Please model this.
Amino acid sequence: MNYKKKEKVLVCIICQTRGYKITWKNFNKYVIKNLGADLAVCVAEKKTNNQFYENAKFIWSFKDRKDYTKLFNYSQKKILKKKKINKNFHNWKKILKIKDSWLSGLGDYPMKYGSGAISIYFRWFLLQKILKEKLHLKYDRFIITRSDFIWTSYHPKLGNLNSDYIWFPNEEKYKGYTDRHAVLSKKNFYDYLNLLEPILLHTNKLFNLMKNKNNWNLESYLKFYLHLMGYRNRIKFFPYVMYLAREANYKTRFFPGAGDYSFKHKYFIKYHKEYIYSLVMYWLLDNKKDYKFFLLYHLIYKIFYKVLFRFPFFIKKFFNQNKINRKFDLDFILKKM
Model:
């Protein structure tokens, strides 16, 4: 009898451990324990006494700053040295002429609020740590995610996510691929995390390819970059089984007051569409740990969101189900429809 080797998984929280007071227990159940994964925390914050740090096998951090320009400069020097390229290399700042928000977080960039450049840098920083500690030789899968998700269903089993592909949740794309969560493998982790290198080493080529569009965001750059790297036909999607939440007293870099408050949950819900998607998946999956009809589930969500949830009477009737009424906030949904 042939037994398939169990994959070793490393879940990586990047940027901050925000929302830990309301998310850890949920995250631990639906992601870490469900996948039998190890946890890495890759952040720019002072270490705090929370469960993400306490349960992390790896902790990588540096001091946060308002302007990440110096970190981009440092990264360029490090890459040039590693590749043995002439030190008198070009100035990468030409790329700052490409708008709209994809490089927010750099001091000279027109968009002063946001975290596009920060997210790009964090992926590169995480990549260096994985390579330095040779974790790509130890782990089969890498999940890049956030700490402020509330999971309403179990993360898909990785046996149902073909390792030849990069996997994203199937929403919040903003004309690209969502940057909030990705499932990677040994075959593609390097390319996904290396978003920074083309900006620093191939500035002119990148500028010429991007200059005719002026509304770039992180999601559209991520899609453009992955297609450039040959992944156009190696991207797949699974249902959105989680939503972003924010503690009442926590402010984000981009939107200081992001989200709307749920009196039932006693925290802010950041995005209405995420919440609806996770609700529909909770209803469909009914706490299943093993599911794989991803496209069918997404189609059912579309029918709910685009058609059925346009009618308040249907929403109210849907909430007559005890399991839905207990877990989700009807008033929040009706207020936003």
Notes: The mean pLDDT is 93. The first strand starts at residue 9 and ends at 15. Residues 9-238 form a domain with the Spore Coat Polysaccharide Biosynthesis Protein SpsA; Chain A fold (CATH 3.90.550).
